[in-house]
């Protein structure tokens, strides 16, 4: 079929008034004919004098136009509510309260009483006036003119606020005209002038009633807020495009035309590279497609694809003509959310199976473990994704039983169990101190050296701290760091990037936490939009130059940055899998807040130690927290002269007990013991000054001593673990250096390394893999730890 004949080489782009071909119409003419543009861009322009200035009205091809839509009752109610809110706010600005606007008052006797008559006068009868066909037609024409005027104001006014108000009056005028036509159909139904109007009314009334769907579930609500943001940004951008198009019709329009063409070219470039796997970036792609689909075939094609993705996956419907977002009530978002989360879990377990090939295991052990993991993972999710999620613990127990049956034990079993629990987010049950080593501490430190050196130059990191941080590195690496540190101290500005490309786990960890925080913030906004009526909060501007739009833009780029950083040097393979899985979990909705992040993000010894110490701190806090409650319980309703001082001193004593329960790492056990005795005496003095009797003071002291005893026991365990962590890291570095010495000896043709490098249990073949040599290090047995509690603390 040949293309329709529109403005082209034989028809100019600009016409004088009433000189355009008959098939080219303005919006007003299309509406009078019961049509609308249907998403097409103007094919020509006509200058119109309006309010003392020249405006350019677009001409549309009527043969491509679609039937005009009639506002639904729900839309009319929403507009009426917005108008009432607008009028109420205007009244408040003039000193009238909302209560005064709605308060009923007595209009006076003239409104309700029949006036008295004299002998010369007769009261008029209350006969109803039967409106004629001519009167009905005249009033209908007047209402149609009011509607056309409101539409013209809304079409010309590009200002966001006044343009929105003009659109409200369009809906009001449309409602008034429709009501008049319904009431006087008997008089006007046979008039050809009103045929198209009645046809539109009939289509609207015969359409099935709309069911207003409400976004439900995490995934659908996120998709809904992304679509709302895209539509609002597109509407705002279209205002700017129309202004540019008007400027392009002026004599000095060359620059405006070039800018418009450049904007379209940039949008097409972005649309040609849509990152379909990045759901956050689809909001920006949808904005580009909505803005340019009338002027670009690529944008039109991509718009269809984007709308299909939102509709098919989450039931989020985007209306191109009206620029609105609605929910398809036939779609079950909870089922889709469940499937996405189950698919994310299945992907993690598949990654474990792939990671198994990289572990230093015997082939027979690998084969047996692979069979067990395949049975644990399952083949597909289509049967029951919900059951797949619910049965996670049961299937993990079955995996352990299968590994036992296969005879996988010892160090191999520890390595497999750690990988499984670490990559499934179940690391809370892992004894991290006894876990196998996957990362050389010296390689991990390389990524943090730039920030440490910058802190050293600013005085935030002391020389002692620098020495402690680099102690795990090889002698050669330590020498390089010290050389740069010496130059910094001398006032020079050396390059601190000694190992470019190495990952700083601290920085990457902050990026991951920021990703979870952004998702948490977006989820709160999505829930608010879904659960509340925002019609009075300028809903058409949500996502336009505000925090919502910035949040989505951050999400669109942050995940890609995290994945790019994870490809750097210094991360173990299982850490890269973990980081990629976290990004996927955020997209799938398994991680919706920072609290949902895995406890152990990285598998290096420094990160493990930090998590272990966090666990110890939580235990210490739980032990010490009982002090305040037990003291309050004993004192009860006792009337005290200085209760605030008693509460303050109890809190100080609680902090000391918590420090003891954590292992007294800050100042040592002797200091904490003396501090405890002194603060206990101060609390007793405060109780005496407050007028507490001796019996209750003795009970308070007994309760505090009992808590201190339990804190001392917990502190002994904590101090033991602190020391064992230090020994473990030292042994890892020693094994690594021994392995390097053996390699150098083999290179030099020596059969054995130097005697100083030999030690029982530390010899490794020079051809062994670095992770094999590191994994040979076992967690050291408890050394002689000083008792943290004496008779004063451990009573």
UniProtKB/TrEMBL annotation:
Domain of life: Bacteria
Amino acid composition bias (Basic and acidic residues), ranges on this chain: 89-103
Ranges of biased composition (kind: Low complexity): 742-751
Residue segments, region Disordered: 89-122, 740-761
NCBIfam families in UniProt: QRL_CxxC_CxxC (NF041638)
Name under which the protein is recorded: Uncharacterized protein
